[in-house]
Design goal:
alpha/beta, UDP-galactose 4-epimerase, domain 1, 2 domains, 3-stranded mixed β-sheet, globular, binds serine
Length: 316
């Protein structure tokens, strides 16, 4: 039986991934870790949770050895907008953190899952039906760390035979834990504000199309990829995975099917708009579908229905 370490496990994806991994493999076989201490009120899995700073290589090695870890889901990272505010810290966490994880994985023979992102693309990338293998010249520190991370993971696979696998995640929509400073965060905030105020001021322009995905699809994608037959994987780091593509007007229209008086206006943030404009409108994820059977389940209206239902329970 594998013993799994999740880094960044109090974050938006990590918190729900840890819960799903506990359900699938048993809480005794999962260790959550985060730079923050878990608080009693955190809605997370009932497995062991340790404090771990991924920029501290010795700390990672100690936990991996003590706990006899065989698989690492490495989610600790800064998101795009936060990274643009502090590029030096983003490099340190996103690159040095990943390097530390890969080195421990090499020494201890662990498999590693690393999320890449739509942020690994840039202005010169084809924006529609963005191919799996294409131009990647991002102009954000987040994107630079994601491209470098993809290359580093592929390098560790080829050079040291570390079982590295990754996904280019789009914006992830969920109701349990908030995202931490991404460009796609509007697609989460809008549901909170629809419930709380029945209005939302959007920081991206109408007509800004981006790939998005509902959390259960994102979790299944990570687990399915890590369980996939390695013989079938032509690619590794990282697979395009797409589920939804919409602009602010379309998500607002989906919300109005449940809250007809919902009102949206715009106050565009030039930094996040610039980032969004450099990212794909929608990716071609046929490599993921062919190589390990990727198939998302949620469309926009189903996401809206679930988000509004769960947030009503949480907020009202
Ligand atoms: N959700 C991420 C961000 O906006 C995209 O990878 O930064």
């Amino acid at each position: 039986m594998n013993k799994i370490l999740v880094t960044g496990s109090l974050g938006q994806i990590g918190s729900e991934l840890a819960t799903a991994l506990c359900k699938r493999y048993g809480a005794n076989n999962v260790i959550m870790s985060d730079i923050r201490e878990k608080r009693r009120e955190d809605e997370t899995a009932e497995c062991k949770c340790v404090v771990l700073d991924v920029t501290n290589a010795k700390q990672i090695a100690r936990i991996v050895h003590e706990e006899k870890i065989t698989v690492i889901y490495h989610l600790a990272a800064l998101l795009s907008a936060t990274a643009e505010n502090n590029p030096q810290l983003a490099w340190d966490i996103n690159i040095n953190g990943l390097y530390n994880i890969l080195e421990v994985a090499r020494e201890s023979n662990c498999a590693v899952f690393t999320p890449s992102s739509i942020g690994a693309f840039g202005l010169s990338t084809p924006h529609d039906n963005t191919p799996q293998d294409t131009i990647q010249r991002p102009n954000t520190m987040y994107g630079v760390t994601k491209v470098a991370g993809e290359l580093l993971c592929d390098y560790y696979h080829k050079r040291f035979n570390v079982d590295t696998r990754g996904l280019r995640y789009p914006g992830i929509i969920s109701y349990k834990t908030l995202p931490g400073g991404g460009t796609t965060d509007y697609a989460v905030e809008i549901y909170y504000e629809a419930i709380k105020q029945k209005k939302y001021t959007c920081f991206l322009k109408a007509g800004t199309y981006l790939d998005m995905m509902y959390m259960p699809d994102a979790i299944n994608a990570a687990i399915d990829l890590m369980e996939a037959d390695p013989a079938k994987l032509v690619h590794r780091n990282a697979f395009n995975v797409s589920a939804l593509s919409f602009d602010p007007e379309e998500i607002a229209a989906s919300i109005r099917k449940h809250i007809p008086e919902f009102f949206m206006d715009y106050n565009v943030d030039p930094i996040r708009q610039g980032i969004a404009d450099s990212w794909p409108n929608f990716m071609d994820d046929s490599a993921a579908r062919e190589e390990w059977g990727w198939k998302p389940e949620y469309n926009l209206d189903r996401v809206t229905e679930e988000m509004l239902k769960h947030l009503k329970e949480k907020l009202l």
